[in-house]
Amino acid sequence: MRRELSADEAVIADRLMKLKDEAGSHSPSFLTLREQIPELEIAVDACFISNPYATQLFLDYLQRELIDTGAIRDVLGSYPSQNQVIAALLAAHLGLGPEWLFVGNGAIEIIQAVIHNFAKRRVLVNLPTFSSYYEFAEGRVDVVFHALRKEDDFRLDPDEYLAKVAETHPDLVVLINPNNPDGSYLPCEDLSRIVAGLPPDVTCVVDESFIHFAFEDMNLDIRSVIGECGHRPNLVVVKSMSKDFGIAGIRAGYAVMHPERVGSLLRNGFLWNSRRLRRPVRHRPQAVHPRDAALLPATGEGATGAGLPVDGQLRAGRDPRRARRGRADATPLDPPRRLRPDLQRQDGPRRPVPAHRLARAARQPTHHRRTRRRPRRVRVWV
């Protein structure tokens, strides 16, 4: 039975509806609700999946590497690095060549860039889905929907989907795995079969923003289709870093695609689209599954063509950064080595820290870390 709202509740409900209308198809952010309706107590943000443990790790890194060393002044006071520079840093952790990576101001900017630049005639999206995929396309190209059935738990049938593609003739298709918002997961074998069954002139966008929350067996392996980009130029794999790394506030995301597509986007105004604050983020290397590793082109001496370089250590599930430091037995799950501000980074050159900053850092109290977790803050630093 529906309860009537009190006078105070009705006022809050009206303000909520106004904020929702202003936010468009997506809900207003948790921070906006807290700022605009301070009297409203919000216990859980059910609109957004995030990893709070990773958020705390990032805050610890921010304190140690930027604030304690004084490097935060350089980060805030200078222009950010260009797209390719940040891509090179991220590529070293993913085991990819930087020419295969496009870095975006969150996955949402990448989605917009891909839709606006690669969709020329018709886009095919599943329903339910993340609304931005068809909102960015509407008014520019035709949008065709493939409705998933609730009685089937919104599972995507590969044969039905390929039949829909043959019927509607799109030039760009979107597959979110796991799907947003229902969370349905398409096994990697079925997803690879769909990608292989598409015409080569159809751009296939696979959004793996939630892939770190899904697994197919008790080994908890991450089954990504990034490994297929090397021999499928029509494949674009989008990855948000907001969910698994818990850093939605700094807007970080990337996509893996053919270098020609990356170059096309960079020539269309995405050269300085990334905040410099993203550079401290340490991305866990995403090991390539043994089945997919065989699909990747060879690298090193004797390799021919512009392949998709994947470090041999990474194929075996090892962290190539640790291997270079004499830790050949280290896996991607190992925590990063704590760096002192007066040492050079092991994964690239770093400008020496001035002596006065080292002295200031030495005067910092050593008991600033709390043993109890601080309450959640609603303010962000960007």
From the structure above, extract its key features.
alpha/beta; 9% strand; Aspartate Aminotransferase, domain 2; 32% helix; 382 residues; seven-stranded mixed β-sheet
Can you walk me through this structure?
Helix 8 packs parallel to helix 9. Helix 7 links the parallel strand 2 and strand 3. The protein is globular, with a radius of gyration of 23 Å. About 30% of the residues lie in helices and about 10% in strands. The chain is of the alpha/beta class. Among the domains are: about 30 residues, no CATH class; about 230 residues, Aspartate Aminotransferase, domain 2 (3-Layer(aba) Sandwich). The protein contains 14 helices and 7 strands. The C terminus is likely disordered.
**E-strand count:** 7
- SS content category: alpha/beta
Low-confidence stretches: 280-350, 365-382
> How would you state the average pLDDT, rounded?
75
The CATH topology of the domain at 80-308 comes to Aspartate Aminotransferase, domain 2
CATH architecture of the domain at 80-308: 3-Layer(aba) Sandwich
- Helix amount: 25-40%
Q: What's the N-to-C terminus distance?
A: 44 Å
Strand content: 5-15%
Summarize the main sheet: 7 strands, mixed
How would the global form be characterised? Answer: globular
